[in-house]
Amino acid sequence: MISFYDVVVDFTGVHGIHLVEIIKKNIGKMGYYIYISSASVYMFGDAELGSEGKWSEIPLNSPETASEEALRLQARYGKELVVAEGKLSAENFLLSIHEKHKFPLTILRLPDVIGEFDNRGRHLGIQSSLVRDIPLGNSLGDKKFSLVYSQDVIKAINKCIKEKPQGQILNIAGDEVFTLQEYASMVASELNVKNVNFDKKKQSLLPSTKVGPIDNYKAKSILGWMPTPATEWLPKVVEWNKIPQNMQYTASILQQQLQDSEKNSEK
Q1: 186 in a structural domain
Q2: Which residue has the higher pLDDT, 92 or 49?
């Protein structure tokens, strides 16, 4: 029976209430805890973006004190609000435990993650639409957003394990800022596709995290972490998604997620 964990990386805790029991039972039994949060928490931030039009790691109101703002945003953001509220409540709980008990904690806030073995299919949806000459949904227009390459998330986690920046919240994102038009054009170039068409009435596949770009300066300065340029990782992702077996891998995961969602809605 394991009585001590050197490192815990938590991708699955969506809400503070999911973490209370396990954290309190294991205080003193974890050498280091990395919580994977979402850039969606910036829905509860100030109205203006931070420096250079990007969100920096500013203090955020808890969902309880931001409830009126949450209601105002819900019509615009829909289900993303559930993720934002849950992740922020988890962040606030973990930070309080860190302050009271010196709990060894780092929080990483991520935008949309793009890479091989994609479990959300957003890039695949764009790539497949371009190949089949199907107009891409672009309900968000010229909204700018950040992305992060999946391998860079792994690098950031490894850097955290080495440096252990206690009590820190770090944005983990690429240096580039995209609009959907810009991202789709880059994918089209890799595919040698000339026509990139959009339909503003269709839902955008990207971004799902709609708060805008996030600033990665703090992660780079504290961790010595550097994201991979999109010009290097995007060709790898495009090539991976050209292989039929890989496309089927992503499609099968999305189908399972749909089935699980339908089962949960029936309960």
Answers
A1: yes
A2: 92
**Alpha-carbon dihedral 180, 205, 177, 44, rounded to 10 degrees:** 130
Q: Are 143 and 207 in contact (CB under 8 A)?
A: yes
pLDDT in tens, 50-75: 656 899 998 787 666 555 555 555 55
Q: Indicate the range of 28-42, 49-63, 99-113, 150-164 predicted with least confidence.
A: 49-63
- Label residues 152-172 b or e (16+ Cβ within 10 Å = b): bbebbbebbeeeebeebbbbb
- Amino acid residing at 32: Y
Beta strand pairing status for 105-110 and 33-38?
Answer: parallel
CATH of the domain at 140: 3.40.50.720
Across the strands, what pairs with 55? Answer: 214
Supply the pTM of this predicted model: 0.89
10 Å CB burial of residue 232 (0-12, 13-18, 19+) is exposed
Give tens-digit pLDDT for 176-201.
Answer: 999 999 999 999 999 999 989 999 99
- Does residue 266 form part of some domain? no
Domain contains 155: yes
- Angstrom distances, CA of residue 123 to CA of 114, 142, 232: 7, 18, 16
Q: Is 98 within a domain?
A: yes
Token digits for 206? Answer: 């990207």
Burial of 144 (0-12, 13-18, 19+ CB in 10 A): middle
Q: What's the number of domains the chain is made of?
A: 1
The tokens of 8 are what? 């815990």
